[in-house]
């Protein structure tokens, strides 16, 4: 086992988890604490890792003009791919019609009512990204605010240059410490993956597919459509990487994303794979990927598109073309503000449904199978981060020699 690569170990853990879940079903839930421990360790390292890696990555670029150019391309790719993902999700949902002829008598509510969030305006969304107290943002784990603060520090270090060389060295060394801690934590990844997958399979089994099968299938088709329509084009014609090579190397990231359902939780693996297997320069990966784990939610965009159309179809509500255009705009903004953590999309879905004037009662049922669809969308999120980073690396010649 020691000679196996981390990818192989994670794959074995994933397979063992499925088998244990199918064999022991709900009796396997006693291993849930192991999975929770893995998630806790991930949560422990994410904030300091993101904070230090972004500062180090931006400061390592060294040239403020180059930083402006690279930053514009990274953010541009993230926004464009999010918009296109929402459009693809809408098209797939229109074709699949997951809510047509839905047995509304089967709609149930969870024991705990879900509260709808207050819809945010564009200005409120932007203002919410700026920390009034950076230390509070770090303490509470507000990732988008931590990133904004880290970006400002990195830009300031880049502008000041040699005047703050000692600070830059301290940041770089602290970043190395975090990467070593991350490496230690990642050694338990196969066991955490096995526990999380076993509990998911054991808890849900295959029975849930009876009622919401078409709804779940639509999500998976939407996600795969984004991969094969948009990502393959970017990989082949912009990043100029062999498709076989890409899908072979990205598998490890997918397995962790499936099990954790967290873009932020998958970030340590995403960084390592992008830097070591795809040979992207550290300064670009350290800058692009942590930002992507927070604002580049292509999978969530597909999820919102399919879910909103599903609810509209269930209740016989015809959304006009203008409403759907507005929906794409709102989805892009909400996706950018969606934290890269498990289950963050549930409350935001209710907010979106409320804003669109659609009923939210069916969310009680969707919550029950949310993890099953969140798995594929998290995998899509992290894939989009890597794809956009590879494209920028090719354009800016930022591959290691």
List the topology elements:
Layout: H1 6-24, H2 32-61, H3 64-96, H4 122-128, H5 134-140, H6 143-160, H7 165-186, H8 189-204, H9 209-238, H10 243-260, H11 263-277, H12 282-295, H13 298-314, H14 321-337, H15 344-355, H16 363-368, H17 370-395
Helix pairs in contact: 1-8, 1-10, 2-6, 2-7, 2-8, 2-11, 2-12, 3-9, 3-12, 3-13, 3-14, 3-17, 8-10, 9-13, 9-17, 10-11, 10-17, 11-12, 11-17, 12-17, 13-14, 13-15, 13-17
Give a written overview of the molecule:
The chain is an all-alpha fold and 401 residues long. It has a single domain (6-395), classed as Proton glutamate symport protein (Orthogonal Bundle). Helices cover 77% and strands 0% of the residues. It contains 17 helices and no strands. It has helices at residues 6-24, 32-61, 64-96, 122-128, 134-140, 143-160, 165-186, 189-204, 209-238, 243-260, 263-277, 282-295, 298-314, 321-337, 344-355, 363-368, 370-395. Helix 1 (6-24) runs parallel beside helix 8 (189-204) and helix 2 packs parallel to helix 6. The longest helix is centred in the N-terminal third of the chain and has 33 residues, at 64-96. It is globular, with a radius of gyration of 21 Å. The chain starts with 5 loop residues before the first helix and ends in a 6-residue tail after the last helix. The model is unreliable at 108-119 (pLDDT under 50). The chain crosses the membrane at residues 41-62, 74-96, 143-161, 188-211, 217-239, 251-271, 291-312, 324-341, 347-370.
């Amino acid at each position: 086992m020691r000679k196996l690569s981390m990818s192989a170990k994670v794959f074995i853990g994933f397979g063992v988890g499925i088998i244990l879940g199918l064999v022991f079903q709900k009796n396997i839930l006693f291993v849930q604490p192991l999975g929770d421990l893995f998630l806790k360790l991930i949560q422990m390292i994410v904030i300091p890792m993101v904070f230090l890696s972004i500062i180090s990555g931006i400061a390592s670029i060294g040239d403020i003009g180059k930083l402006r150019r690279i930053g514009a391309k990274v953010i541009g790719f993230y926004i464009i791919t999010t918009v296109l993902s929402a459009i693809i999700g809408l098209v797939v949902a229109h074709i699949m019609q997951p809510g047509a002829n839905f047995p509304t008598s089967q709609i149930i509510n969870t024991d705990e009512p879900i509260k709808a969030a207050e819809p945010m305006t564009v200005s409120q969304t932007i203002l919410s990204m700026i920390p009034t107290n950076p230390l509070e943002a770090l303490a509470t784990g507000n990732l988008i605010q931590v990133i904004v603060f880290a970006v400002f520090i990195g830009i300031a270090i880049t502008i000041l240059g040699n005047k703050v060389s000692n600070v830059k060295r301290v940041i770089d060394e602290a970043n190395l410490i975090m990467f070593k801690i991350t490496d230690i934590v990642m050694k338990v990844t196969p066991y955490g993956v096995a526990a999380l997958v076993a509990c998911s399979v054991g808890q849900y089994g295959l029975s849930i597919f009876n009622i919401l099968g078409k709804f779940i299938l639509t999500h998976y088709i939407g996600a795969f459509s984004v991969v094969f329509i948009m990502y393959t084009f970017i990989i082949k014609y912009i990043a100029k990487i062999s498709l076989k090579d890409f899908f072979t190397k990205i598998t490890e990231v997918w397995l962790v994303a499936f099990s954790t359902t967290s873009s932020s939780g998958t970030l340590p693996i995403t960084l390592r794979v992008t830097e070591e297997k795809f040979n992207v320069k550290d300064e670009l990966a350290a800058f692009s990927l942590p930002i992507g784990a927070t604002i580049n939610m292509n999978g969530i965009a597909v999820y919102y598109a399919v879910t909103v159309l599903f609810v509209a179809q269930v209740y016989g509500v015809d959304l006009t073309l203008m409403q759907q255009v507005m929906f794409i705009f709102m989805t892009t903004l909400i996706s950018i503000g969606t934290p890269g953590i498990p289950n963050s999309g549930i409350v935001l879905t209710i907010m979106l449904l409320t804003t669109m004037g659609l009923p939210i009662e069916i969310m009680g049922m969707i919550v029950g199978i949310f993890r099953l669809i969140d798995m594929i969308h998290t995998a899509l999120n992290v894939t989009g981060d890597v794809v956009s980073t590879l494209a920028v690396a090719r354009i800016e010649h930022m591959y290691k020699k």
